[in-house]
Each structure stands twice: as C-alpha cells, then as structure tokens.
C-alpha cells in the first residue's frame, strides 16, 4: 500500500529558517499519519516563469534538499501550479506558509484548494509565515554583492533552457546597464524584465564618436564590459562583427570567456565592416560558407568551458541572396559547431524572418534562434517566441534614445540661456543617486 504523503513545493535556491520551519511542520504531519514528506522542487523553467532564474540549477538545489533529514523524497515540479503533482501524488496534506493568501500567488493557492476539493484527497495547511525572512530579499541582497564570473557566464544557456523568449537590450555603459537591469513591468501578474545585455559594436563605437567599422579594439570594449559587470548580474552577449581573422578570433574568444561574457555573435561577411541595415546600398561581401565554418570551428576549439556560446549571424536576407541560401548556411554553421543562429532582415515586415524560423524549425527544433527586430519593430517579442525564436535583441535603442534627449537638452539650455525650462526632461539628481548603489 502506498505511503501517505505530505507535499511541500519549494524553489530552495537559498535555504533559510523559514524553509526549515515549514519542513518541520510537514514532518510532524507525516509522523501523525505514518507517511512521508515529499518536496516538489520547482524546475528552472517553473521559477523563470514568474521571477529571475535561481543561482543554483535544479540538480544543485536537489542535492541540497536531499541532504536535509526532514525530507523523504524530492521530485520535480515543472510549473508554478501544484496541480500536476497533486493529481499524481494525491497527498493527505499540502503545506505552504500563509503569505500566499495575498499577492501574486493567490491564483496558485486557489488552484490547490480547487484540485484538493475535486480529488477529495487532502487538506491545505497554512502555517504563519516566518517574519523577517524573505527568499526574494535574500536574493536581492546577494545580487547586490555581485555575481561570479563563472556564474554569469553560464546564465545564458540556463536561461535558454528555462524561458522563451529571452529579451536582451543594448548597453554601452555601466549606467545604461543599470537602467536595463532595473527596468520591468508587471503583465498579467508576471514580472517581465530584460534577461541580459547586448554589447553592440555600433553603439560602442558611436558612443566614442567613431564609425561602425570595427574601429574600437577588443580591449577598449572589454573595459566597458568590465564596468558593466561591476554593477550588474545579468548575462551579456557580445557583438563581434565578422570576428576578424581566424587567428585573431580565437584569442578574442578566450578573452571574452575569461571576462564572463556568455556568448559572441559573428556575422558571415568579409572586408571592412558596414552596417547591415544599409544592405546593398553599399558594397558588402558575404563570406564563403567553408571559410566561415572554419572560423566557427576554430572558435569552438579555443574556448575553455562548455558554457560559452558562439552564434552565427547570417546576412543572406540582408544582401537579397534569398531564403534557400540563408537556410543552407544555417544548417552548415550548426554542423560546424555554432551554438545558435541569428537571422537578420532590413524589411519592415517580419514575414521573411517568420518564414526562415518555420523552415529552420522544421528540421532543427533545438538550436537557439536570435532575432534583432530593429526594422520590423511592430512584432512583439512574445510573438517571435511563439514562432520559435529564443532570444530577441533590442540592439541600439538606449543609445539612440539618449542621443535625442541629450541633443534636446543641450539645445534648450542655449536657447533659454538657463536650465530651468529643460529640468522636466532630465532625471532628478535624487533619482540618479538612488539608482547608483552605494551613493546614498
């Protein structure tokens, strides 16, 4: 006869006394019914559906829980909803602190009550929430201290496995990265935020007053990235343009990986770099497939960890070479070791991008697809994710917005010969001070 079950669902990223209190109560109920305590450990995907990815992955968190004597068994809970595991286990008791009677988890709580009532199998027990302790606050405090290089480096692969779509935004300075890190909206009870940063060669060079022709050397760009990393905790994807010569690209891969960058994107063009959105208005040459595959292989052989990603950017649609050429290159680049494919378009409509995704996904369901919807900006990230894209990059918007604002304010001061009229267009000094950690 199966043992009676007391069920507890947990994220268990940072174990604290509140967790232990809940587990002790669960163990007491299990003893009374001669049953067992089963913990449903939320998977990375389940956690990422409503808040940031945990520090530790599922297997690491499971190992911690299995060492706690109060727990008899740990199983995965694949969604925020308890319903699947309740139907599977038919527990005698479900234990959760009473803090979820209000706030974001009200619907989850009601679903537990409804499922237990439908099955007629158990009771929800809600001990008083342990005051003064919050996993969310502990996580925020830990992130304020910082994140290790290896932990940041591995975040992108974990995020791709746990969440679709990922939203990345261009950051060209530590200040712009702080703005991106702290930006969020609540949509239908879910927190939506940027999952990481894009180090754009366009905005990096433009912010220095230089043309977008690979004029800024790697070390200068790494200095900016290090400044971003000092004050943030999210992963970064690096725009490596063409990657340069193979011999130089291998050194770049090692430098980026050592810094904690999660991925680099290289485009299949040769010669002096020209911005892709210019298309055939300027002379641009696409690389030979074999030569570009050799560059991908060399980069993969140069990296030290399995976490770093090399993503191949295909320019076929930009250069009007057609869908078949784009797909042939995509499959060849994946075979050469590319960890992802970025497909680009300069059309206002997303139709050719959606066509590429559909045809690529018909043969390859796993390789991540990266989209930069600068031209076709009417389609949402959610719609692109539902079509099969994994990462959506907003590639230059923070710098472009900053340029307009700075130009307007500078002009206004000169026109009025004082700054009173433009104060409403500026962030207050107090806001700036509150944004920068340690200032106040």
Brief synopsis:
The chain is an alpha/beta fold and 440 residues long.
β content, as a range? Answer: 15-25%
CATH superfamily of the largest domain: Phosphoenolpyruvate-binding domains
Radius of gyration, rounded?
25 Å
Reported CATH architecture of the largest domain: Alpha-Beta Barrel
The CATH class label of the largest domain is Alpha Beta
Keywords: Isomerase, Nucleotidyltransferase, Pyruvate, Transferase
Enzyme class: isomerase
Family: Belongs to the isocitrate lyase/PEP mutase superfamily. PEP mutase family.
EC number: 5.4.2.9
What would you note in describing this structure?
The longest helix has 20 residues, at 397-416. The chain has helices at 17-32, 44-48, 58-66, 83-89, 106-119, 135-145, 149-162, 174-182, 201-206, 218-231, 246-259, 289-302, 323-335, 351-363, 381-387, 397-416, 429-435; strands at 5-10, 36-42, 73-77, 93-95, 123-125, 166-170, 184-187, 190-193, 196-199, 236-239, 263-267, 269-270, 285-286, 309-314, 340-343, 369-371, 391-394. The N and C termini lie far apart (62 Å). It is α/β, with parallel strands linked by helices. Helices cover 44% and strands 16% of the residues. It folds into 3 domains: 5-137, Rossmann fold, CATH 3.40.50; 146-395, Phosphoenolpyruvate-binding domains (TIM Barrel), CATH 3.20.20.60; 401-434, no CATH class. The mean pLDDT is 91. InterPro entries: Cyt_trans-like (IPR004821), ICL/PEPM (IPR039556), PEnolPyrv_PMutase_core (IPR012698), Pyrv/PenolPyrv_kinase-like_dom (IPR015813), Pyrv_kinase-like_dom_sf (IPR040442), Rossmann-like_a/b/a_fold (IPR014729). Pfam families: CTP_transf_like (PF01467), PEP_mutase (PF13714).
């Amino acid at each position: 006869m199966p043992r009676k079950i007391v069920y507890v669902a947990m994220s268990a990223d940072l174990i604290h006394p509140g967790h232990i209190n809940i587990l002790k109560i669960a163990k007491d109920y299990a003893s009374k019914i001669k049953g067992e305590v089963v913990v449903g450990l939320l998977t990375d995907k389940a956690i990422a559906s409503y808040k940031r990815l945990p520090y530790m992955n599922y297997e690491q968190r499971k190992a911690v829980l299995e060492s706690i004597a109060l727990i008899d068994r740990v199983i995965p809970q694949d969604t925020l909803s308890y319903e699947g595991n309740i139907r599977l286990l038919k527990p005698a008791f479900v234990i959760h602190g009473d803090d979820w009677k209000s706030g974001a988890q009200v619907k989850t709580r009601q679903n537990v009550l409804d499922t237990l009532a439908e099955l007629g199998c158990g009771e929800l027990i809600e001990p008083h929430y342990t005051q003064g302790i919050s996993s969310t606050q502990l996580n925020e405090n830990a992130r304020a201290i910082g994140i290790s290089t290896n932990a940041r480096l591995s975040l992108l692969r974990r995020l791709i496995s746990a969440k679709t779509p990922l939203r990345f935004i261009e950051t060209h300075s530590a200040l712009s990265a702080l703005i991106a890190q702290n930006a969020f909206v609540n949509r239908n009870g879910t927190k939506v935020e940027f999952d990481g940063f894009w180090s754009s060669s366009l905005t990096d060079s433009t912010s220095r007053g230089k043309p977008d022709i690979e004029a800024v050397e790697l070390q200068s760009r790494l200095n900016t990235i290090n400044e971003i990393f000092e004050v943030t905790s999210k992963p970064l994807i690096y725009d490596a343009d063409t990657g340069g010569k193979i011999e130089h690209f291998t050194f770049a891969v090692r430098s980026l990986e050592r810094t904690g960058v999660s991925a680099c994107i290289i485009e299949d063009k040769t010669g002096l770099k020209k911005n892709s959105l210019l298309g055939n208005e300027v002379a641009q040459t696409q690389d030979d497939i074999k030569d570009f595959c050799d560059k991908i292989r060399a980069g993969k052989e140069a990296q030290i960890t399995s976490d770093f990603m090399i993503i191949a950017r295909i320019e076929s649609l930009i250069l009007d070479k057609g869908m078949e050429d784009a797909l042939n290159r995509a499959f060849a680049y994946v075979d050469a070791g590319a960890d992802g494919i970025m497909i680009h378009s300069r059309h206002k409509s997303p139709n050719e991008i959606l066509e590429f995704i559909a045809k690529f996904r018909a043969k390859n369901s796993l390789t991540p697809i990266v989209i930069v919807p600068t031209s076709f900006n009417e389609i949402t990230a959610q719609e692109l994710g539902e079509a099969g894209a994994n990462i959506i990059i907003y590639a230059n918007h923070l710098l472009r917005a900053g340029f307009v604002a700075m130009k307007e304010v500078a002009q206004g001061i000169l026109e009025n010969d004082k700054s009173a009229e433009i104060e409403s267009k500026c962030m207050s000094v107090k806001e700036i001070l509150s944004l920068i950690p340690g200032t106040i």
